[in-house]
TrEMBL record:
Assigned protein family: Belongs to the LamB/PxpA family.
Entry-linked InterPro entries: Glyco_hydro/deAcase_b/a-brl, LamB/YcsF/PxpA-like
Ion transport keyword on record: no
Gene Ontology molecular functions: 5-oxoprolinase (ATP-hydrolyzing) activity; ATP binding
Tagged with keyword ATP-binding: yes
Gene that encodes the chain: pxpA
EC identifiers of the protein: 3.5.2.9
A Pfam family this chain is assigned to: LamB_YcsF
Name of the protein this chain belongs to: 5-oxoprolinase subunit A
Role of this protein: Catalyzes the cleavage of 5-oxoproline to form L-glutamate coupled to the hydrolysis of ATP to ADP and inorganic phosphate.
Lineage top rank: taxon: Bacteria
Enzyme class, spelled out: hydrolase
Amino acid sequence: MVIDLNADLGEGFGIWRLGDDMALLDVVTSANIACGFHAGDPVIIRRTCAAAVDRGVMIGAQVSYRDLAGFGRREMEVDPEELCAEVLYQLAAVDGIARAMGGRVSYVKPHGALYNRICRDPEQAEAVVTAVVDYDRGLPVLTLPGSAVHEIAAREGLATVVEAFADRAYTSAGALVSRRSPGAVLHDPAEVTARAVRMATDQTVTAVDGSQVPVDARSICVHGDTPGAVLLARSVRDGLVKAGVTLRAFT
């Protein structure tokens, strides 16, 4: 049993800080670094990339809609060519900084509303896939099982990696419950840890209606912007190791 543990990092902006990136980088094996469109700025990106390289943590480009005010959590109607160009822009920027720090971007993970939209919208999914292929066909894309991204990426020879969310509620269809709904984000370390262990060992998660949803994931996400994120991430890591799961990045 081998699992990657990823978290969204570098999500501050200017003097505003969100989460404890340095502490989380001591826990996770992959870091989804904000690219400046929903959060992050050049200084934060540089510092986060440098810290990830120092710790041997893999760097992912967390591309987003251009939505700083809404933290990338507002779904948007964007022309496919424009979306493709914006994803390409973000990817190239973070990879350039990562390389200057001695590392590189090794995968792509869309953020927030874009992540959820491309799971069900082939047009926007194709725009994101095209951007990644244009930049580097060797970069896998993290997405949910059943996502529209899998088929489109396979057609282009682009790898995808299935991930699961330990701290998010699921619908019976395997989608994430909207953050607008009560209970969409889970905060109890014991509950989140138990879900992560079950995801890794049994490849299932209990949906909000009590049904069992298959999640054959190679990576598990814990969010870095929730209260108690570091404690929660440490609990998940410790629980996985105790269950005999090997923590290793997928790239």
